[in-house]
Amino acid sequence: MASTKAALASGPNEMSEVEALQFITQFSGRCLLLLGHGTRGSYAEIDAALLEADDIGQRMSSACSASVSSLDESSSSRTPKRLQVPQQWCVVFGGDHAKSDRPSIGNVAKHLHEQWGAAVLAVQSRHVQSTTGVDAFCSAVHWYEPVQAGRGAGAAGSLYGGTDGQGQPIAATAVYLGKDFLPHIAGVAAFGGGVTACAEVAYALRVGLPLKYLPCAPKTPPKDPHAHPFGPIHEYLMEMGVAEELTVSSGADAAAGDSLDDVKAVLARLGAEAFAAKTPPKTPSAPLDDSRTCMTMHQPWASLMVYGIKRAEGRVWTPSPPFQVRTAAHALSTSPRSMYVHLCFIVYLHREGCGSMLEARCLSLTRSLKLRTCTEH
Amino acid sequence: MPEPDKVIEVENMYRTLMLASGMKEADIKFPAVYPTGCLIGSVDVPAVLPNATYRTALAGHVPPSVLAESKAPYVFLCQNPQRLLAPMEMTGSFKLYNLPKQIWKQAVHGCVPAEPMEPVAFPSFVGDL
What ipTM, to 2 d.p.? Predict the structure, then answer.
């Protein structure tokens, strides 16, 4: 606790909402909202998130470097001395702590600050001000007044953020996605996330902010065994038709390059001998009743399934049991690669001075594809 | 169109599996085409099992190569494959959904049983797992 206190003393500028708005205005159009897992959910693979953050950092810093000199001159006259920071762009996030044992979106913010020179504004609840505070790497912090319990029916998110029953942003969301901040935010980068981030992404899409989304599994798996391992945000984007399903490791035991003996050893472990001794029936006694149920799959797995070559189809979700129906197979028209393009939204960076919109597409398509297998086997 | 590299990779994976389970190279046949954007056939799904159950409870009851196919958290068991002789163009959706009635009626009549290299009949207890 002592270290936190010391950090607070030397660390972030504490700002009222008006000051925070002034801070953001300096970075108007060069300000990215970071959403993701907190320390409770935490990242299972923080390295994958940091790799993607590098891409964002590279794009933001190179897009901003050209215009920053003129901007600094103009901003110095109207902003108080202590608000002046050397950074050229900024990230806003919920003030989660950057911990090595339970990495959160705070680690991503810290990385963007240390590696890519981003100014960091933390928007954190007043009730942690005197206890845990925020990390010292934050340039500024705004303490918002926590909302009381009872956000009304239809509310989404949590007490820390999201929307109320009327679909209006609350708590932290009311600050960084509020009507004052909104014109200055260039886009939202969501590195996975729980219910709060999910509600915030839904709101951001509703108000028309560009979104870049990277699927990130939380370290703490969801309580519901049927829930998607990438969390509610992934389920939401899937429902929206945005995120095609991605799995982390759904490959078969045998890889194309494995030697025959290796595969034989795998089969032996899976009961080859017992099966050979048994000679059970090779065709089912009776077919199941026809049903209109259909499932869309990628090629070549779809065809392999209806030819009887593929007899086990993996998914990261399960229908509610008992599931026992005849299922039609639909082959998806797009290849896995182009599905991923849907998932990587475009981040628009507003370039000050020249006034043009710089389109920053997800550069790391190929790199991301290596991180996550796109299709299910 | 599926990526040719991916098709070769997946076919090779299945070829290795089939060879390892004692099949002759000459008997291993793959689909000539992989059509996309269409309904291509159907299978019976007697159960969807968590991966651990699929691996352990079925050992000895089904060809072992079936159990080496998926590492995904949940596994749809597929038997009795039927393929549509003429794939029907349609757009897909997410997760599970119902086919439009018209397409479904036509599809039911247009299916022929596939002739799998290594057929499987999942034991009847899979529904209770």
Answer: 0.95
